[in-house]
Amino acid sequence: MENRLYKRDIISIADFDRKDLELVLETAAQLKNSPRPDLLQGKVIASCFFEASTRTRLSFETAVQRLGGTLIGFSDAGNTSAKKGETLADSVNIISSYTDAFVMRHPQEGSARLASEFSSVPVINGGDGSNQHPTQTLLDLFSIRECQGKLDGLKVAFVGDLKYGRTVHSLAQALCHFGAEFTFIAPKALAMPDYILEELDEKGIKYRFSDSIEETAPQVDIIYMTRVQKERFDETEYKHIASKYILDVESLKDAKENLKVLHPLPRVDEIAVEVDKTPYAYYFQQAENGVYARQALLALVLNEVV
Amino acid sequence: MRKKLQVEAICQGTVIDHIPAGQGIKILDRLRLLDSNASITVGFNLPSKDQGHKDIIKVTSRKFTEQEANQLALFAPSATINVIDNYEVVDKFKMALPESLQGAFTCPNSNCITHNEPVDTHFYLREHNGDVRLKCKYCEKSFSKDIVAEL
């Protein structure tokens, strides 16, 4: 497969077409089956987390080391020159001159796109504010393909906070390349935003709304759970709505055999612990897949031939 | 019968004609036309054959930059720009909505990185259901043109 991602910045899932996505997923599958500790040999990767993160940073850093690369960087901006008032543009300009790729997370939207304009090496976005988190979407797609054996024509339900959840927006946009059908289950105040629905309409993607996980489970291949944040509601209101958006074993009693439940994690109480033992739970494998998806990206961006 | 102009003709400069009534003030403000030394004659709510009412702005001895013309297209896509030399119209062009606008407006998203960094804002424009939407190249948020332009 031609490496279309060589030397490219990985900023937004909107920059990926179907072929790009397939290339990453195929490479991730290969690396999961046969590790390649040679692919980043001799490469130094910057891992600059201007905002704290657990899974994203650790899985990126694991990915670099599994491919034979080494790391420099920081896990929060507290002790860096950003604290002294240095612009992000200057920080990126300098750090990129030390390294072969620049992995970053930053609390402001647009930071990764801006960094790519000042970096001399490819930038990989590990999350920019509420905007994009493309590697999460890639690991979600990889997990869906792995557990369903395909990506085309799947029925996917999104549950929980569909308004503020960037992972939900990006995944829905990416699945449009594969003709998915969607069901949205969310409290009114956290419904899928209009601009995403408009995009789906323009692309001719079918979607519907529901307020019951139990009624939806028999019709879909994937349930993608997200957390309804308590702080967005007053206490009485939260108690009233929260139970509707909690997945337990009972709500899966008529589920399709191939159904898998995904969650970007961390989970709080929206998936009952008892679900972990059912064959439907796939969120821990999904989290593990973060390493393979990030390995694939790093390998493709830094090697003309993988 | 001799037709009398409601707004005095200018010898040299630019006439922005067919501005939708009500937009003239915004254009004066947005393009900071009053900050320059140019003499400016304006007409608001003038009768127009095509539009019912229109605004008109005449600026003496001043040409518009491409960026100003692009901003103008956002406020008044139906406007025409007439370049005047010796009381004659020597060039006339219609506004066209540009594909993108750089450095003209602040991003309404207060958490957008462009507020803190040494870059020009950059918006991609597209028409949606009769409204012009501007999408920030950096934070990727989309806004109605009124929200962006009123800042």
Short account of what is shown:
The complex is a heterodimer of chains A (306) and B (151). Chain A has 306 residues and is an alpha/beta fold.
Topology:
The complex is a heterodimer of chains A (306) and B (151).
Chain A: H1 18-33, E1 44-49, H2 55-66, E2 70-74, H3 88-98, E3 101-106, H4 111-118, E4 123-128, H5 134-148, E5 155-159, H6 166-175, E6 181-185, H7 194-202, E7 207-209, H8 213-216, E8 222-225, H9 235-242, E9 260-262, H10 283-302
Helix pairs in contact in A: 1-5, 1-10, 2-10, 3-4, 5-6, 5-10
Chain B: E1 12-20, H1 24-30, E2 40-48, E3 52-60, H2 66-75, E4 80-85, E5 88-94, E6 100-102, E7 122-128, E8 131-136, E9 142-144, H3 145-149
Antiparallel strand pairs in B: 1-3, 1-4, 2-3, 4-5, 6-7, 7-8, 8-9
Estimate the global geometry of chain A from the Cα principal axes: globular
Give the N-to-C terminal Cα separation of chain B: 47 Å
Largest chain interface and its two residue counts?
A: A-B, 21 and 18 residues
* Element order of chain A: H for helix, E for strand: HEHEHEHEHEHEHEHEHEH
Sheet bearing the most strands of chain A, described?
Answer: 5 strands, parallel
* Uncertain stretches of 5 or more adjacent residues of chain B: none
Strand order of the largest sheet of chain B: 2-3-1-4-5
The average pLDDT value of chain B, as a whole number, equals 86
Proportion of residues in extended strands of chain A = 5-15%
Helix content of chain A: 25-40%
Radius of gyration of chain A: 19 Å
Radius of gyration of chain B: 17 Å
Strand content of chain B: 35-45%
Distance between the termini of chain A: 9 Å
Task: Report the total helices of chain A.
Answer: 10
Q: What is the makeup of the main sheet of chain B?
A: 5 strands, antiparallel
Percent range of helical residues of chain B: 10-25%
Oligomer: heterodimer
The helix/strand class of chain A is alpha/beta
Which runs of chain A of at least 5 residues are low in confidence (pLDDT < 50)?
none
Element pattern of chain B in H and E? EHEEHEEEEEEH
